[in-house]
Design brief:
The chain has about 750 residues and is of the alpha/beta class. It is built from 27 helices and 15 strands. The strands form four sheets. The protein has a six-stranded mixed β-sheet with strand order 9-12-13-6-14-15. The radius of gyration is 46 Å and the shape is rod-shaped. The two termini are about 70 Å apart.
């Protein structure tokens, strides 16, 4: 994947923006359980009372609580409260009276605005004081032998206690030995902070009741406020998720577009040597399926690669903040999930490489069947081809099913781990709640954080599955992109010589295919001049087409020089070289479109007159005019709706429209009947005029009129001359001619 990282560069800003949004989404998701925990702990269990230290307390209440405080605690409390007298007047007093109705008849103390650290300290003081009170009352109850449901009898529920009865007990409490308070205070300090806060809050709730405050309103306002923030955060997280999905789709689609563009451009620059290296089916797979795999992993990866680690690490931190003692549950979940991911990765990874190769094979078999359908039917081998396709299909299916089953096994295992961890958290958390070392809301939040951690591992596991396959595809794409064409333009291009226009010269040229042991052309030398026809003939495999392919640089000569217009073809740009040549391949190739668009492929600016003239010379006018739409008639893919002879004539007409200096006809008359062949050659001779014409042919009758005939045998020139000269001095040519012509024609 790193080999293709440069394709993300144009989208760097979008990627960074996506990561920022993902961070925001993760923060939103991590904060939701925390707010929910506050709703349960504070909003429901504490009736919306957030601080253990009351914001206001009756004068009698503070005096009662100070009975159980140390001197330092009394000083700290008194420093942070202000006495408000019931007999006072003014707007501030009226405001307090509206909020605390008890002020109308009794003095109260109002807590000053303090920072969070001071509020926490005061809350802990009230919590310890509440438990000192509880422990003292237990001692008194035990010493007096009382047994009832009141707090004074040892009950620890202080939220419903009647404070008037407690105030009445204050004179008795003040007579207790200091050792009783010290022991009660020492026992209170042993309680965990959560228990102290809960008890302090319960005491505060009782004081608020005494003040006449509307506890229902406090609870409702707290829950509505937290609910509003939850909704706001959820909407922000949802908006971030939508935007990230949009951006990731744009990034992946843009990268896929650029990859396909570059692969296509690279393949277009390939010479025949590179096409020998890569099969057509493989190049199609790399341009389509492999790019799709990379696009898919980018679409998911942009969202998961950044989001999953933030969610996982953040979830661990937040979960431990709720209950550090239950951290071992998170460790257990991480170990189980890591082991599962490792097993899946080890088993599935090798199969991904196999899958892509099997797709190549399936495409190859399918393409061969479609291209060779007529041959297959002619030989009655449909069953054989069906079996061949079925084998490739079954191989791919089996491998894909294996990978799919491994992935399918992972999902229920993940769910089993997730549900098992949930049950474990509830079981352990219930015991901690029973011992007052954990609150219900914290346990629920801990469970949600555990689920988020597991979900992050699930996302990471999905990436571990997708990335290896995409990595294989990326490697295959990078292999094509890294392939340097064996034929490239020179750094310093030369210009053609104007005095040598149309000249084609071979100077001691030899050629060997890549990886071959022997040359297929040996020391070829000749000159083809403008206004003349140079023909090449020889037995099958003698090197005729190979020789012709050296002129437009489809291959490069291994030794010697090939000159066009007085310049070595290696020293000029391929575009300028091929602009000089009108090439008609051995197998006529037409493109989907109309007849006119195919003929204009040689010159997009060609006039209608140019097209008709070229068609007339190529003897194509008759069958074109016979079609209802004429030159606007559609040509199907690869020209499958025209005959072989018609395809050849259209290919010849396409080259004629270009009006080049050099024409190359690579056995381009083989599908024509003798009459059409003779008529076409006669018209071609008149039309090409001063151009250089190179013809590769199997039929002697096609080249009899050529000014220069070159006879090839096993890659060597065994004869050069006219038809008459070669009959006299070239046995190879005479043997070919005698096999095709009558004795009268040979005479």
């Amino acid at each position: 994947m790193t080999k293709l990282a440069r394709y993300l560069k144009p989208f760097a800003l979008t990627v960074l923006l996506s990561f920022a949004l993902l961070f925001g989404q993760a923060m939103a998701d991590l904060n939701l359980p925390n707010i929910m925990s506050e709703i349960v702990n504070v909003g429901i269990q504490q009736s919306g009372i957030q601080d253990a230290a009351p914001e206001a307390i009756s004068a009698k209440g503070l005096t009662f609580m100070e009975t159980f405080m140390t001197a330092e605690q009394k000083t700290d409390i008194e420093k942070n409260v202000t006495l408000v007298s019931a007999s006072a007047t003014g707007a501030e007093h009226d405001s307090y009276a509206a909020r605390y109705p008890l002020l109308k008849t009794e003095d109260i103390y109002v807590r000053a605005d303090v920072d969070s650290a001071t509020a926490d300290r005061l809350g802990k003081t009230f919590g310890e004081t509440a438990w000192t009170f509880i422990n003292t009352m237990k001692t008194v109850s035990k010493q007096s032998g009382q047994s009832s449901n009141t707090l004074s009898a040892g009950n620890t529920d202080i939220s419903q206690e009647d404070f008037e009865k407690l105030y009445a007990m204050q004179p008795m409490l003040q007579k207790l030995p200091s050792s009783v308070f010290e022991q009660a205070r020492s026992d209170a300090a042993k309680n965990p902070d959560t228990m102290l806060i809960q008890s302090g809050t319960a005491m505060t709730k009782s004081f608020y009741k005494e003040l006449g405050m509307d506890l229902g309103r406090i609870q409702t306002n707290f829950i509505l406020n937290k609910g509003f923030w939850m909704l706001l955060i959820a909407l922000a997280g949802g908006a971030a998720a939508v935007l990230v999905g949009f951006f990731s789709s744009r990034i992946s689609a843009g990268v896929a577009r650029n990859l396909r563009r570059d692969i296509f451009a690279k393949v277009e620059s390939f010479s025949n040597r590179e096409f020998d290296q890569y099969s057509t089916a493989s190049l199609i797979t790399r341009t389509t399926n492999d790019v799709t795999q990379v696009q898919l992993v980018l679409t998911m990866g942009v969202r998961m690669i950044c989001y999953a680690p933030i969610l996982g690490i953040g979830g661990i931190i937040m979960a431990l903040s709720k209950s550090f003692s239950m951290g071992w549950v998170i460790v257990l979940a991480c170990v189980l999930l890591s082991g599962l991911i490792l097993v899946v990765f080890t088993v599935a990874m090798p199969k991904f490489k196999v899958v892509q190769k099997l797709i190549d094979r399936l495409n190859l078999v399918a393409r061969e069947n479609l291209n060779g359908l007529m041959v297959i039917r002619a030989f009655g081998t449909q069953k054989f081809e069906e079996d061949r396709f079925d084998k490739s299909n079954q191989d791919l299916t089996r491998t894909t099913l294996f990978v799919s089953r491994v992935i399918a096994f992972m999902m229920p295992t993940m769910m089993l781990i997730m549900n098992g961890i949930s049950l474990l958290i509830v079981w352990v958390g219930a015991h901690q709640i029973a011992s007052s070392s954990m609150q219900v809301g914290d346990m629920i939040a801990f469970m949600q954080y555990a689920m988020q951690i597991i979900m992050s591992f699930l996302m990471i596991s999905m990436m571990f599955i997708m990335i290896p396959r995409a990595s294989v595809s990326a490697g295959r794409i990078a292999e094509v992109l890294a392939t340097e064409p064996s034929i490239d333009d020179p750094k310093q291009e030369e210009k053609f010589r104007s005095d040598k226009t149309g000249y084609v010269e071979f100077k001691n040229v030899s050629f060997r295919y890549h990886g071959a042991d022997e040359d297929v052309l040996n020391h070829i030398s000749f000159t083809a001049k403008p206004g003349q026809t140079t023909a090449f003939i020889g037995s099958t495999g003698s090197g005729k087409s190979t020789l012709i392919n050296l002129i437009p640089r489809f291959y490069d000569a291994t030794e010697g020089e090939v000159l066009v217009n007085g310049r070595n073809v290696k020293n000029v740009s391929q575009k300028e070289l091929r602009d000089q040549i009108g090439y008609v391949p051995q197998k006529g190739v037409l493109l989907s479109g109309t007849i006119a668009s195919n003929l204009r492929y040689g010159d997009k600016d060609a006039t209608e007159e140019d097209i008709k003239t070229a068609a007339a010379v190529a003897q194509a006018t008759e069958f074109i005019d016979a079609k209802p739409e004429g030159y606007a008639s559609e040509i199907s893919q690869a020209g499958s709706n025209v005959s072989g002879g018609q395809k050849q004539r259209l290919s010849i007409a396409r080259a004629l429209v270009k009006k080049p200096a050099i024409y190359i006809f690579d056995d381009s008359f083989s599908a024509l009947d003798f009459k059409t062949d003779a008529t076409l050659r006669h018209a071609l001779k008149q039309h090409t005029g001063g151009s250089t014409v190179l013809i590769v042919a199997q039929r002697v009758s096609t080249i009899m009129g050529a000014e220069q005939i070159i006879v090839l045998d096993e890659g060597k020139i065994v004869g050069i001359g006219t038809h008459a000269e070669l009959l006299q001095n070239c046995p190879t040519y005479y043997e070919i001619a005698s096999s095709q012509l009558s004795k009268e024609e040979l005479a």
